[in-house]
């Protein structure tokens, strides 16, 4: 049997559609027929060769939902339920070792030194070759963390819980205080930013504010009920004043970077009140450096916190949050395309002309 796959053979080049042999399963392996996958903003950096984790050739795609075709052995999902053929499942993109210092002693598995990520650092040259979501089939290894989905879950909507959703949960969980009565600013209106703001809203934040330059994304944020949307094309002064106006001149309690670029950081720090927290969640590849005013950091007693990917708990929370609010997250999907149209889909994301782009199989 063969599977159609979109392969990145060379950086900065379009993906190439090829037919690939499906190899036999190892002990604990699961063959999954893809139902839906999502294009993530970070896929663009990977195609461009800007993510040091990515080898070529590779099948990209780290957000996926699919149906189990075959399991070699017994496997339970994160709820302890036995998985079987025909189950609709979603999986955690990262597989951790459970043995290293970060997994075992610090209990921060998102920092695992041996973390293997579907569609990110698994070469197409290595078994099982089908290790990314941009193919008709994917083979999951034994240690993969899986959740069985109820049959009335929309695969195209739930798919975003796997990466941006789980990372957004990590960003919110990284805050020491709860968000009741707080003002939360998110820079960047992609799925990560919208997800983080939705979480803040449902946790009782008083003001949720989005900074974005995309009219497309503004519309999505409006539909979702974000309290204030500030245009990135206005002056920095204007944006700051609007935030100061609704916070009695103090500034935001929390600012979350979800743009994917270092350039957002200096402005984000200015938005914060004294004692506020700045979370960097979107920057996922090395970037040109930007100057930061450390006097601003010390004199305002600011906490700056990096958030790297996510773990099983963040993943599970994100899946249940999306399952519960499927109608809300459905509004993020602007394009459903086929695997053959993947390069078009990547262009849409690159040019920020889309909300969420999903591939249906
Ligand atoms: Zn991603
Ligand atoms: Zn580890």
UniProtKB/TrEMBL annotation:
* Cited SUPFAM superfamilies: GroES-like, NAD(P)-binding Rossmann-fold domains
Species assigned in the record: Dictyoglomus thermophilum (strain ATCC 35947 / DSM 3960 / H-6-12)
The residue ranges of the Alcohol dehydrogenase-like C-terminal domain are 191-323
Put simply, this protein is called 5-exo-alcohol dehydrogenase
Q: Which Pfam families match?
A: ADH_N, ADH_zinc_N
Top enzyme class, one word, equals: oxidoreductase
Instruction: Please state the Enzyme Commission number of this protein.
Output: 1.1.1.-
The molecular function terms in GO held by this entry are: oxidoreductase activity
Which keywords does this Swiss-Prot/TrEMBL entry list? Answer: Oxidoreductase
Q: Which residues form the Alcohol dehydrogenase-like N-terminal domain?
A: 28-144
UniProt keyword annotation of Lyase present:
no
